[in-house]
Each structure stands twice: as C-alpha cells, then as structure tokens.
Write a structure and sequence with these properties.
single chain; mainly alpha; about 85% helix; rod-shaped; membrane
C-alpha cells in the first residue's frame, strides 16, 4: 500500500512507532505474568479445597464408626 501523495514517512516516524509498540508489548508481558501468577494461586487454592472436600466424608464415616463402636462397647460392658 502506498501512502497518499504528499505524505512522507521518515525513519524517525518509524522509530517512534516501534518504540511506542515496544512499550505496549512490555506492558502486555507484565500483565500476562501477573495473570499467570494469579492463575497459579487460584489453581493452588482450588486443589486445597478439593483435598479438603474429599477428605471430609472419610472423616465423618470414621467418626461415626468410632461413635458406634463406643456405644456398642458401653452397652456390652453394662
């Protein structure tokens, strides 16, 4: 694509645009790294929540079995 007649693009114009573009890319990389860190934090929290959720039913079952065993032992001992 050729520029319209009378438009002159200098090397300085191109350089200035490249510098501005580089600044935008740097800003995007910083944002990307922050998002990556936040995602890792959310992933860690989700995994911890899942471990707790799956461990809870087992704890309840073991607690109920212990209570039943205590009641049976108490009734058998009387």
């Amino acid at each position: 694509m050729t520029p319209p007649p009378g438009v002159i693009i200098t090397a300085r114009d191109i350089y200035d645009k490249l510098v501005a573009l580089g600044g935008k890319v740097d800003g995007m990389l910083t944002t990307f790294e922050q998002i990556r860190a936040q995602l890792a934090d959310h992933e860690q929290r989700l995994r911890a929540s899942e471990r707790w959720r799956y461990a809870l039913p087992l704890s309840v079952v073991l607690g109920l079995l212990s209570a039943v065993a205590s009641i049976v032992a108490g009734l058998a001992g009387s």
